[in-house]
Write a structure and sequence with these properties.
single chain; 193 residues; mainly beta; 6-stranded antiparallel beta sheet; 40% strand; globular
Length: 193
């Protein structure tokens, strides 16, 4: 697997190898041993999620799950194409409020690792886009939260208004948000990458 650092320490791009022939391809989208051998040790995953957005321009986010059930997410696109975003919301972090985005598609096979302490969101670029992601903690509705998608200066590449959920449409602005996360220093799992 290829591992790339982003401009936000802790947020990584992971690109699994694809082995193709006339039938198509085979890829290990997750292999703990391979990543450990590469110097990357991510937390244990306990839940897999899969969602589909019927319309291009569907924006989901920016979401987080607070302690004690904070979630890290390893995100990939199962079908279609999306723009995936992570935003640092750890109080005291030198990159607080900064974001990084990556195009994930079925074609490119790229994955984005979004650690706990970061907002996560995406906008679909094609109809019937599927997103698949592994989580480091189970869903806990009492810890579920959101920040408004349009209050951070993210260039979503939209040509019109996005399709939002009712929850996302009323999320607070980042400036009005009191983050439950504290910066605890650099991520150890990046040391050998």
């Amino acid at each position: 697997m290829q591992i790339e650092k982003t401009s936000l320490p802790g947020v990584l791009i992971i690109v699994p190898r694809r082995h193709g022939d006339a039938r198509g391809f085979f890829s290990e989208s997750w292999n703990d041993k391979t990543l450990r051998d590469s110097g990357l040790e991510l937390p244990e995953f306990v839940q897999d999620n899969h969602s589909m957005s019927a319309a291009a321009g569907t924006l989901r986010g920016l979401h987080f799950q607070s302690p004690p059930h904070a979630q890290g997410k390893l995100v990939r696109c199962g079908r279609g194409r999306l723009f995936d975003v992570a935003v640092d919301i750890r109080k005291g972090s030198p990159t607080y409020g900064q974001w990084v985005g990556e195009e994930l598609s079925f074609e490119n096979g790229r994955q984005l690792w979004v650690p706990a302490g970061f907002l996560h969101g995406f906008v679909t670029r094609e109809a019937d886009t599927e997103i698949c992601y592994k989580c480091t903690d189970h869903y806990a509705p009492d810890c579920d939260g959101a920040v408004a998608w349009n209050t951070i200066g993210i260039d979503w590449g939209l040509t019109g208004e996005p399709l939002l959920s009712a929850k996302d449409a009323i999320a607070p602005a980042l400036a009005d948000f009191d983050s439950p996360f504290d910066y605890e220093g650099p991520f150890d799992y990046e040391a050998n990458i």
